[in-house]
Amino acid sequence: MKYTYLLIDFFTAIIPFIFSFHPKLNFYKTWKAFFPAVIITGMIFILWDVYFTSLGVWGFNSRYLIGVAIGNMPVEEILFFFCIPYSCVFTYHCLDLWIKRNLPQRIELVLTTLLIFVFAITGILLNDKIYSMVTFIGLAVLMAVARYILKVSWLPKFYLIYGILLIPFLIVNGLLTGTALEEPVVWYNQAQIIGLRILTIPVEDVFYGMALILLNLLIYLHLKIKYQLISGYSGKPI
């Protein structure tokens, strides 16, 4: 049982890693952009994790851990911020090759503006629940930066692909929060969350994951363009 979290990390990343070398995907050729993105984003989210763990917002079940920790962080939790983004950014890379149609710009602008407004208001109203507040306000700020400051054009595709990613997300995060296990690997302080769950998953985790992947992609795609790394099998610069 002590290898449970470590194995979840491993199996999340191993298949995307293997297929990174497929000649029609060539994701490994974008590693120059990916690794800075995952390191920068990982450091931000790990510091967030360390602080919330110290506050007792969430914690970890030693039954499912190998017992190696850095500070108050199990090594499995640190690996989470590298394995999950690897799988998700790889999936974005693959689907981006095949999904060519986007929402019209006007519809995307309305949708993004609405989401920013809803997330910001939700975070403000939930100011007595620190995980809910930080997650929703943080995501609103990140989306506003992406849309209005960086003016990225790929948000419609991100919405679609993140919707697809929610399927494996529910499996992985379900296991971590106790679905199909006797106890959760990661527990949450009920006083700091809304209390709505998808099976055993706090609903906030859906938006926490959205922020995690969005920040990775903002950095990754910026560096990918900067370095003019290839996109899949086309051989053409981005």
What does this structure look like?
This protein has helices at residues 4-19, 31-55, 75-98, 105-125, 130-149, 155-176, 204-227, and strands at residues 58-60, 69-70, 73-74, 186-188, 197-198, 201-202. It is mainly α and 238 residues long. Strand 2 and strand 3 form a beta hairpin.
Low-confidence stretches: 232-238
Strand fraction: 5-15%
Query: What is the element string, with H for helices and E for strands?
Result: HHEEEHHHHEEEH
Number of helices: 7
Rg from Cα: 18 Å
Q: Please outline the major beta sheet.
A: 2 strands, antiparallel
- Overall, the morphology is globular
Which structural class should the secondary elements be placed in?
mainly alpha
Read across the widest sheet, the strand sequence of neighbours is: 1-4
Proportion of helical residues: 55-70%
Number of strand elements: 6
First-residue to last-residue Cα separation:
45 Å
Mean pLDDT across residues: 93
Set down the secondary structure blueprint.
Elements: H1 4-19, H2 31-55, E1 58-60, E2 69-70, E3 73-74, H3 75-98, H4 105-125, H5 130-149, H6 155-176, E4 186-188, E5 197-198, E6 201-202, H7 204-227
Antiparallel strand pairs: 1-4, 2-3, 5-6
Helix pairs in contact: 1-3, 2-3, 2-7, 3-6, 3-7, 4-5, 5-7, 6-7
Kindly summarize this structure in a few lines.
The protein is mostly helical and 238 residues long.
